[in-house]
Amino acid sequence: MEIKKDILWRVYLCFIAIAIICACVIGKAFYIQQLQGAYWRNTSDSMHTRIEEVDAERGTIYSEDGQMLSTSIPQFDVYIDFKADGLIQNNGKVFKENVDSLSICLANLFKDKSAKEYESLLRKGYASKNRYFSLKKKVSFDQYQQLKNFPLVRLGKNKSGFIADIQNIRLNPYQLLAFRTIGLERQNAQKVGLEQTYDSVLRGTTGKRLVRYISGGVAVPVNEDYDIEPKNGKDIVTTLDSRIQEITENALMKMMVQNEAEHGCAIVMEVKTGKIKAIANLGRQKDGSYWEDFNYAMTPTEPGSTFKVATMLSILEDKKYNLNSIINLEGGKWDINGRTVYDAEEHVQSIVTVKRAFELSSNVGMAKLVYSSYASNPMQFINHLKTLHLDSATGIDLYGERPPFIDHPGSKYWSATTLPWMAFGYNVLVTPLHICMLYNAVANNGEMMRPYLLNAVKQEGNIVRQTQPFQIEKICDSTTLQQIRECLEGVCSEPGSTAYKLFKGESYSVAGKTGTALVANGKRGYADHIYQSSFAGYFPADNPQYTCVVVIKNKPHAASFYGASVAGPVFKEIADRLITLNSPLPDTTRYLTLQANNNEKYNYAGYQTDIKTVLAAMHVEYQDSAKTNWARMSNRQSQAILSDIPVSKKTMPSLSGLGLKDALYICENEGLVVQVEGVGKVANQSIAVGTAIAKGQQIKLELN
């Protein structure tokens, strides 16, 4: 029995000892992990260093007129190393002496916390001895420049412990403007547009730096002596013009919203060079707004009637027909190989010339012309389309262009009706950019230019590379070119033509073509009656400067869907604005000389300083005889004379020729009550000049 008790006593003693040891181990583990965890993690991390890459500052993308379209701006995350030598020396004397004033400066700069809150935050960080205490993130460049001059911070990194982690943020200052074409460079995201195409030019050369990893896996620079500075990227200057881009984008947006269209694009190309001056792409979002979400200008679709230019070029070049040849439009309906060709727009004419069939945009006319010309040898027609480069990429310097599709005999898609349908832009897939390139060739005396977006590459302001216009080839002979130009001009100028009403009475000439294509809606086919409206052309027709193509895909069952009523107005607004934008300034000297010979009209009056400012800006010489605040400019022996308008509070002055604002100022200063009729300048006044006046007296002014 005694032996049993002895054994149990020893077992209990061992158990108690083991339990005590386990409790001590657990307690020590808890103490190390919870109370000393930050210290040991910092100690462990501080022993790990490595070389890491430093991204270079990305180059800026400019428009041709010098506007920044995409640029990088520095953004700073500010941290504090509270174990920096300068902060722990003398029991934190430097920190304690500066924390109050620093807190006040931080509160005034960021305005997100009070000075007391910042002081409490800093003292808490100091007490924790955190080696990478986060003070403020996403600090702007201007804010950072001010921060560097604050108390404590201005002592430098080693004494203050302040660390700035620099991030370069990519910014598109104009937001929507050509957004898809420019692209936006973002971390962990696919680049698009020019940001993708010229990434190797823009990104520069990566640098290196030695860093130490501390708590949380955060990398802190160790010694700047080991750094290899990154080499900044080059800037690129595009062919885009910010003014033309804005005009194009606004005109397209207006019609998209008005017609609730699904998506659309508009392209403006400089005729003689092939430079893309504007390219707008808008798609409807789920909330009904529009955004540059996809590059529709480089996406192939069935172009519809704008493709008829290629049809006419082929027929005229092969001398199959001429513009005066007669064709029967069959009342706008023609049966061929078991299917029926319909004209998109109704017209009453049947027996017409080839030119008139084009002006009326007759599908029947184009189908009959192509079928009678090429049914026995379809490849002859296909080869013409290849000559016009409608079967290959345009070659524009922008990633993402999808290849076109031109069918040919022997393929699985070719049928007995493929050829006639191709004549009016069906059974082919080409991009709006292809159409723009084709019309531009017609405008440019038959010389097809490759479209491009890169104007130059610059490094530190110096041009290191420049793009020159590239001519692909001449598309036809001069006779064919002249005939096709007549057709395009007729579409916009001949009564009854599809675009006649759109440009009737305009002061400039336009050559162009409307297009209305019924497009399929996936598995639903053509049941939803979705139409693609387009307009392609150039202006002024007699001296082409710009080629413009507008393509808009409408919503199902849209009330307005014809090319002339949807895409046409967008083209016209762009053309109107560009004609005005590029028109020469009037000869003001000649105008004033002509006016000087007409004493009746040559009568300007107003505030003397204003008149002199206008005359100086117009570089008009004049004789100055004015000594009072109010003056009149008149003609004497073909010379402009500036003379006084006497103003007295006792008698009525002459108000003739003054604008309403100036006349009211004078009358109300005299205490007169004014009644006004008409608009313009003062022509008559009810109180005669020189008549005595009194305060409260009424005067009636008649404006011309």
Please give a structural write-up.
The protein starts with a helix and ends with a strand. Helix 4 packs across helix 5 (115-128), helix 11 packs antiparallel against helix 20 and helix 12 packs parallel to helix 14. Strand 13 and strand 14 form a beta hairpin. The chain folds into five domains: 2-35; 51-238, Penicillin-binding protein 2a (Domain 2), CATH 3.90.1310.10; 244-582, Beta-lactamase (3-Layer(aba) Sandwich); 584-645, no CATH class; 647-704, Trypsin Inhibitor V, Chain A (2-Layer Sandwich), CATH 3.30.10. Strands 2, 3, 4, 5, 8, 19 and 20 form a seven-stranded mixed β-sheet that branches. A six-stranded antiparallel β-sheet has the order 11-10-9-24-23-22, sandwiched between helices. By secondary structure, the protein is of the alpha+beta class. The protein has 23 helices and 31 strands. The chain is flat, with a radius of gyration of 39 Å.
Q: Which bin fits the share of residues in helices?
A: 25-40%
The averaged pLDDT comes out at: 86
Give me the number of helical elements. 23
Terminal CA distance: 136 Å
Full CATH superfamily name of the largest domain? DD-peptidase/beta-lactamase superfamily
CATH architecture of the largest domain: 3-Layer(aba) Sandwich
CATH class placement of the largest domain: Alpha Beta
What is the total tally of β strands? Answer: 31
Oligomer: single chain
**How would a textbook summarize the main sheet?**
7 strands, mixed
Overall shape: it is flat
Beta-strand residue percentage: 15-25%
Based on secondary structure, the structural category is alpha+beta
